[in-house]
Amino acid sequence: MTKKNRKAKVDFFLLFVFSVLVVFILFVIPQYRNLRVNVGEVSCRAIRNSLSNAINQYKLENGENDFLLYKEIDIIMLKEKNYTGEKYLVCPDGGVYKINKEGQVYCTKHNPDLEDR
């Protein structure tokens, strides 16, 4: 094999590696970012459902309403009274859970539009 053929193969290989890296940067990294955002939203939705169930159970058993509208839900109290099991139900993206006037649990980060209802 001559030096010219070997150099052509090396150049082709480097071009191929560069092309793969460009495709990776253009397509895979943005998809990964979107996936991380979606996972946070899905987790938050599941936590809101669990928190809503815990609040409803608390209200049924205690017959009183300790949860004020549009105020932060006392997650620590729910956990200490064993309504959330062994978990503190917190938003993975740092949102705050509150209750609107219709009794829906909403997150200030993922669905703040429910606050207006």
Which blocks of ≥5 consecutive residues have pLDDT under 50? none
Query: What is the domain total for the residues?
Result: 1
- Binned, the helix content reads 55-70%
What series of H and E elements makes up the topology? HHEE
SS strand fraction: 5-15%
> Helix/strand-derived class?
mainly alpha
Total helix count?
2
Number of strands: 2
Major sheet attributes: 2 strands, antiparallel
Rg from Cα: 25 Å
Shape: rod-shaped
Distance between the termini: 76 Å
- Strand order across the largest sheet: 1-2
Could you characterize what this model shows?
This protein is mainly alpha-helical and 117 residues long. It has one domain (3-116). 56% of the residues lie in helices and 5% in strands. The chain contains two helices and two strands. The chain has a two-stranded antiparallel sheet. The protein starts with a helix and ends in a 10-residue tail after the last strand. The model has no long low-confidence stretch (mean pLDDT 83).
Question: Summarize this, please?
Answer:
The protein has 117 residues and is mainly α. Helices cover 56% and strands 5% of the residues. The chain has a two-stranded antiparallel sheet with strand order 1-2.
Strand-helix topology:
Elements: H1 3-62, H2 75-80, E1 97-99, E2 105-107
Antiparallel strand pairs: 1-2
Keywords:
two-stranded antiparallel sheet, 2 strands, 117 residues, 56% helix, single chain, mainly alpha
